[in-house]
Amino acid sequence: MIFHIAKKEFLNNLLSARFVIGFLLCLVLIPFSILINVDDYRDQANQYRLDQAAAEKSLKEIRVYSALRPQIIFAPEPLGIFGKGISAQVGNKVWIHLGEMPLLAEGIAATRDNRFLASFFSIDFVDIAAIIFSLLALLFSFDALTREKENGTLRLQMANSLSRSKLLAGKVVGILMTLLPILVFCFLLGSVVILLSGDLSFTNSEWGRLAALAFASLIYLAVFIFIGLLVSSRTKSSVTSLVLCLFLWVLLVFIVPNLSSYFAESFVGIQSRDNLDRVLNDFDRSTLERIAVVEKNLPRPDWQMSWYMSSAEDGYRELYGLSASYFEWERQRASAVEPMRIDNADKKWGPQRAYLDSLDRQARAADFMAMISPAGIFRIIASASCGTDRATHQKRMDEVRRYRETFVRYLQGKNIFASTAYITPTPPSAFRTADALVTARTGGKFKSVKEYDDWASNQKDFRARWAVLGTVKLPNDRPDGFPYLTVDDMPRFTGRAVTVFGALEGSILRLGLILFESLILFALAYIAFIKYDVR
Amino acid sequence: MFKTILKREILHNLYSLRFILSLVLILAVFIAHSLSFVRSHPSALNSYRESRGLAVKTMQKDASGSATRLAVTQRNYDLRPRDNAFIADAKEKFLPNSLVFSAWNVFGFQNKSGSSNPFLPSYDELNWMFIAALIISFVTFLFTFDAVSGEKESRTLAQALSNSVSRGTLLFGKYLSANLSVMLILVPGVLISLLIVLSTGAASWNGSLAGEAAAYLAAAGLLTAVMAAFGLLCSVLARNSNVSLLLALSAWILFAVVIPNSSGFLAKNLFPIEKAETVMKRSNKAREDLSRAAPPGSWMMNSGNPFLPQHELRANLQRKLLAAEKQIRDAYYLNMFRQFEQTRRLIAISPVAAFEYLIEASVGGGYQRFRKVWDDLHIFQIQFQDFFTALDAKDPKSPHWFNPSEDVSTTRLPVPFETVPQFTERSMSFADRFKPAFKYLITLILMGCVVYFTSFILFVRYDVR
Questions:
Q1: ipTM
Q2: Domain ranges, ordered by start, for chain B
Q3: N or C: which end of chain A has fewer CB within 10 A?
Q4: Could you tell me which chain A residue has the CA closest to the CA of B253?
């Protein structure tokens, strides 16, 4: 009997205008949302390849260990085509620095070329699914009982030896039979677009996670069907049921998710970024002061002239053509200063961690409030399935921080800060005294630094002072003659791939919650229908 | 007869469940939003004042040290949280909200770190604009989707037209009543929100706020009129209310969700601009070329004596570097503005988007505000430069070799901070706001007229039996 009712319901729905229009909506919006995001994914994948190549090149083309600072680039998540989650906001690049623990990733895709575009939000498959599936579920269920009551057919059916539970089950199966093909069609359409895009390919894990997303969509669909049935079994006319359902739709799909984030931002404060920056600056300033003391206490070199020097952030110094004592001064400086900077990074991590925790607390509060709505839960599960949620990003950042520790240990293991290889590729055997350097550079015109200084102090043309030092070009004065470092033994970052279980690990409870919600709603609809006046 | 129809329709709407639900929903959202704003705005202001205070202290310290240090140091001017942000935040959290400048250039802009929580998914802030754009537009469709098809189903349409009433009058009666009913829902919400915001001191009542609130109501009325016209169009396109409902919902999803959220895709594909990396490469190359062509000794540093000849070489080089970089960057910024503006013009085919841009202009926020500050800061930078040049001219110990990046070869005398020109953002004038608002205003009016006229034509040919 359930089958007959379901079949009747299915055929009725199939021939209705709402099926045609609903189907057309999916036919237009689903490929559109996928195409938009495939386009974005291609851009990101191209950029990723360029960034990755640049990062590799920057590791290979170095001559000193102080320039060895790996850059981690996160590959774009292919399932981000279905649900972007927070991936558009969190960036995908992290520099591994000795003086800084990675806080937030850089290179936010949305603002890479035009910062103003960050104010344009984009839509994805998950958004469209959350809107359309819920709407269709409500449109097919809001009048499941009221329409039959209005037509008088409900009374007729109940006059037969048909139990109310069987009728309700038949209606649920009928509506599911109507909507399931649309849902399957949407996922198939999405998959076909992916398969036809020659440059995209999913791994088994990604197909598995897509199947998990389809399963979550099915439960989400069921929740809204039960909401529609519950409303239908508590109202007497289709118009009332429709109006209630539509208001519930707007409330649950649009207002609650936005309201939850808005409330979380207003009522769950985060630590001020300005404050954090000030605290970090204080740490840096204090470290710089200690570094200045160290530098002051080091024995001064006999001739403090940098012939060729490059320096940049995070302790990078590349030196050529210095006197032996100046090289030694720089070596001693690096061996004292670099551990201090590493220590400073560890100290800064406390306030940084507290800041990150406050961001996380606010986001968790928003998630918690969003769980009032099935659409909120669905979006959280969907972004977890797609590997674009907060938890996946945080796990990845934790891996990056652990990698930094490994990298620091690698440098410390080589005792590289105490070696001149940290600041120059010139072998110590080729270091010369200041007097020898002056003699060689001036072609023997001056025999010592003192002689040169005495002469230079009488020269008004400062260019002439330099010119005389360039009389003879010395082989170790520039980087060109030195080979690049070989750092094959350096540990590489290997992030763990997102697996089906790994992605859904944190969402099991939420999946359970939405299942529980659907069961409760069905039970409520059943109880309401038992008491329903079918006349 | 028109009055009778109007009265009947309004009463019909007022007694309907959809009116009560809409009223409850909208009042609840207005109250929730206002309470939230009252809580978050003061802390945002405090944080801004704290950061501004520190910036001023740094400037005072620089001024007491050396006028040149004051002139060459790059500073950030952060935009103050707007008191009228409860009407429309205009996505300022996501737009550039901090501008970098010195006496020599306005270098660029950025979205201040910490402006938004990156772990929170992007969302539309709940404010008056959101309420009108999303909820009011939806409610308007609910009031109009069955205005014709519903009456045809219940067979009251034929009866109504059997009286001496023209189709035009009937349609206009329905149209006007839907508009008035929606405004009856919106106005109490606005008044309650104003009451909460003003009574808690989160904003103060003045002529400007009154004007902005009135402009909001007018713009919301215009949006309602356009959406009501679309609702009527859906109603006369279908023979039964189920189909017209689906058409109306499809139109709403298209206007309120799909079109506004496709902007990024349209911007990149229809109005592409150069990649940031390419621009950076070009800028770096220009710098390298200039550095390479500079006379020997240009990079020699020795800040002890300002009159050392190499300082003049380096000052010349730094000025050339700045000019070259400025030319490349300013052209890039113009392209950014153009891409953003062109996309918004296209997106304004959605009445919801056009309404959002109209409100943004009327509250003097968002992109329009940024552009005004950007332009004003350029004017200020030249004034600041003139002030510094005049100051330097008075110092006999200065060689007057203007170096835009270093505190070395211009006056090193301290300068009284009170005499230093300060940049303060000026509120947008009526003309500043009206100019960008005008095109969206015209768009909405034209859209409303065309859609209503189409509905009228279709209704004239509608089979009412």
A1: 0.90
A2: 1-259+349-381+422-465, 271-348
A3: C
A4: A131
Dump pLDDT digits (tens) for B302-360.
666 778 888 888 899 999 999 999 999 999 999 999 999 999 999 999 999 999 999 99
Mutate which: A35, A116, A146, vs B, most B CBs within 10 A: A116
| Side chain identity, residue A340 | M
> Which of A22, A120, A247 has its CB closest to that of B21?
A247
Kind plus residue range of the DSSP H or E element containing A94: strand A93-95
User: Residue range B36-48: average pLDDT?
Assistant: 92
Helix or strand (DSSP H, E) at A95: strand A93-95
Q: At B110, which helix (H) or strand (E)?
A: strand B106-110
With an 8 Å Cβ cutoff, are A86 and B118 in contact?
Answer: yes
What does the alpha-carbon distance between residue A102 and residue A357 come to, in Å, rounded to a whole number? Answer: 14
* Mean pLDDT over the full length of chain A: 89
What is d(CA A420, CA A334) in angstroms, rounded to the nearest whole number?
A: 9
CB-CB under 8 Å, A25 with B40 = no
Structure tokens at B456: 């009228």
Residue B409 C-beta-side C-alpha neighbours within 13 Å: 21
- Report helix, strand and coil shares of chain A as percent, to nearest 5: 70, 5, 25
Contacts of B355 (CB under 8 A, 6+ apart): B129, B132, B133, B219, B220, B222, B223, B440, B444
Through-space distance between the first and last CA atoms of chain B, rounded to whole angstroms = 22
Q: What are the domain boundaries of chain A?
A: 2-272+355-408+492-530
Q: Considering only the beta carbons, identify the residue of B95, B273, B309 that sits closest to A119.
A: B95
Cα–Cα distances in angstroms (integers) from residue A4 to residues A173, A174, B94, B118, in the given order: 10, 9, 55, 52
- CB contact, 8 Å: A89 with chain B? yes
% chain B with pLDDT above 90:
67
| Phi-psi group of B297: left, alpha or beta (phi > 0 → left; psi -120 to 50 → alpha; rest → beta) | left
A21 touches chain B (CB under 8 A): yes
Residue with more model confidence, B49 or A535? B49
Q: pLDDT averaged over chain B?
A: 91
Binary contact (B125, A262; C-beta < 8 A): yes
Cβ pair A462:B138 closer than 8 A: no
Q: Measured between alpha carbons, how far is B52 from A446 in angstroms, rounded to an integer?
A: 57
Residue A415 has pLDDT above 90, yes or no: yes
A370 touches chain B (CB under 8 A): no
**Max Cα separation, chain B?**
99
Between A and B, how many residue pairs show a Cβ–Cβ distance under 8 A?
Answer: 207
